[in-house]
Every structure is written in C-alpha cells, then in structure tokens.
Amino acid sequence: MIVGLRAGKEKMKIKQITNQNRRDFTATYECEHCGATETGYGYDDDNFHRNVIPAMKCKECGKTAAEDYRPMGTKYAAHEVI
Fold this sequence. Notes:
three-stranded antiparallel beta sheet; alpha+beta; 30% strand
C-alpha cells in the first residue's frame, strides 16, 4: 500500500509495510521530495492516513505534505473488526 497520489509533491508516504498486526503496522516511510527513508509505526485507520501522515516532517529536508495531498484508503473498513 502506498499513501499519496501525486508524485513530486513534498510529503512522506508509505513505501512498504514491513509488519502488520490487526491495524498496527511498521513501515518504511519515504519523502517524495528528497527520497529519504525512515522506519516508523502506524495505525491503519482513516485519521492516520488523512491527518498523521500528511503532518509527518521529513528528518532530512523538513518538508511535509502539500495542501493538495490526497490519502488512499485503509486496508480494512472502519466498521470491520479485525
């Protein structure tokens, strides 16, 4: 799953989910501006994809998502019990 639809904009995106247990996951995040990567945790819900990922600052260049950032959906629907 890759979060973010517009290549070339300054934002972090999920490059690869390396481990997932229910909605908690560990992923490699990549800055679409400078290409720096970092490993971090995440939660697969709408709030995380819409609010947390766009607010992530790249540790290398310090940029966050552009105003037109459009997140992709979650792996599971909000009503699903996992």
